[in-house]
Amino acid sequence: MVFCRNCGNQMDDIANVCVRCGVQKGRGNYYCPNCGHQTAPDAAMCTQCGIGLGPGGAMPGAKSKLTAGLLGIFLGAFGVHNFYLGYTGKAVAQLLITVLSCFILSEVSYIWGLIEGIMILTGSINTDGHGQPLGE
Ligand SMILES: [Zn+2]
Ligand SMILES: [Zn+2]
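Above: query sequence and zinc ion SMILES. Below: predicted holo structure tokens.
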């Protein structure tokens, strides 16, 4: 559960746009996305729940860039980083390449995962499978 930062409306986790005001999730700076408490537009954190409100700050429940990147580098052959980020289609493809080839082609998915891991760490990939910005 998140709250629209523009109007304070409760939003579905999967919704990308507020149904009440039409503003994109995470846009606006009048309400805390975590607890719905009204906040000062320039507040750095919510006075009610203490969550950081920096501009472009990661949403609550945002996937960790560092975790995803390291998973890609070390376990990319199994698509673990893509499972983690919710890119299930890509994740299954990487896993199947590795498993169905009895690891003969694991290098292919390993390098694929390695490159994606590096892209995640460098910010070339900066959203998860649902379009949510990654956290630190
Ligand atoms: Zn709204
Ligand atoms: Zn709050």
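The radius of gyration is 18 Å.
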